[in-house]
């Protein structure tokens, strides 16, 4: 309870905070009891759900994307929002944390209803959605729009954290190129870049040293974009960074003489949703907590 009071006091000051939760210990977060806000009119520390959703849809230009999932409001909860939780994936652990935090809305990068998945609400899908509906918590999800956005997107946020200068898109000529390319502030060896990624992301990357030359020009695409390695090779960069790796990626890197780093799908995609949560806290005066559910991949 004391920890919770401290957290709430801190959040009232900054209205945005970080929580790191290991996958099995999320219940350590103490409960915050609060009334349902269905019939409450918004004040200076809350906003109507539809206003918040319209703001995000328009900010991220979500209607412009052909995506693998619906972008925007996926599950409707309370009509008024005063507290939001953000996280990478709407897993059961994150959903439970949002309910326990008393969130009105959960904002994620990986939501539900992916193309090709079975439609019936059974198994873990039923449990996750039931928890959100029972808690009256909305689910707001942005996938590609939150990878690509030029200020809040995962790719530009990763560059900011790593100190990389952005020169352009990984796919020249595509205004909505998902990945980016650019330059390091100063050339680094492959080992030195691996160490920096490990320090910044809190997780050691897998590094395939396709050559031993220093890295100055770099391309990157957060998430599972190992399939884009050839786009990076076509740009002539020294290194390509993404979240995941496949068996052929190693040979492609070696045979083309490029450094390849798999720095974690989850680890590289924390920062877009967190930046959007901070923006919403600032824009509407609402409380925001980023909840990091540990994921080694
Ligand atoms: Zn992803």
From TrEMBL:
Q: Which UniProt keywords apply?
A: Metal-binding
Q: Does the keyword Metal-binding apply?
A: yes
The family database entries (SUPFAM superfamilies) matched by this protein are listed as:
NIF3 (NGG1p interacting factor 3)-like (SSF102705)
Spell out the molecular function terms from Gene Ontology: metal ion binding
**Gene Ontology terms, cellular component aspect?**
cytoplasm
| Gene3D superfamilies found in the cross-reference section | NIF3 (NGG1p interacting factor 3)-like (3.40.1390.30)
What the entry lists under Pfam families is as follows: DUF34_NIF3
Q: Which family does it belong to?
A: Belongs to the GTP cyclohydrolase I type 2/NIF3 family.
NCBIfam families, A to Z: YbgI_SA1388
Q: What is this protein called?
A: GTP cyclohydrolase 1 type 2 homolog
């Amino acid at each position: 309870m004391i920890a919770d009071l401290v957290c709430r006091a801190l959040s009232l000051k900054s209205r945005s905070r970080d929580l790191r939760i290991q996958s099995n210990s999320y219940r350590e977060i103490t409960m915050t009891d609060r009334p349902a806000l269905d019939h409450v009119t918004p004040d200076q520390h809350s906003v109507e759900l539809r206003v918040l959703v319209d703001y995000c849809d328009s900010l991220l230009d979500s209607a412009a994307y052909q995506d693998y999932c619906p972008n925007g409001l996926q599950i409707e909860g309370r009509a008024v929002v005063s507290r939001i939780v953000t996280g990478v994936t709407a897993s059961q652990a994150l959903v439970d944390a949002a309910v326990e935090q008393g969130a009105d809305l959960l904002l994620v990068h990986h939501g539900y209803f992916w193309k090709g998945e079975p439609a019936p609400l059974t198994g873990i899908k039923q449990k996750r959605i039931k928890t959100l509906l029972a808690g009256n918590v909305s689910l707001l999800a942005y996938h590609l729009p939150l990878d690509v956005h030029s200020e809040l997107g995962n790719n530009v946020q990763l560059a900011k954290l790593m100190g990389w200068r952005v020169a352009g898109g990984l796919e020249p000529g595509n205004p909505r190129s998902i990945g980016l390319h650019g330059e390091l502030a100063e050339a680094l060896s492959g080992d030195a870049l691996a160490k920096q990624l490990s320090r910044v992301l809190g997780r050691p990357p897998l590094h395939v040293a396709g050559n031993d030359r220093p890295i100055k020009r770099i391309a990157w695409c957060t998430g599972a974009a190992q399939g884009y390695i050839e786009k990076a090779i076509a740009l002539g960069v020294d290194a390509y960074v993404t979240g995941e790796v496949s068996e052929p990626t190693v040979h492609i890197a070696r045979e083309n003489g490029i450094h390849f780093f798999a720095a974690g799908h989850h680890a590289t995609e924390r920062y877009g949703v967190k930046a959007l949560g901070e923006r919403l806290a600032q824009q509407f005066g609402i409380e925001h907590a980023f909840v990091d559910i540990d994921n080694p991949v």
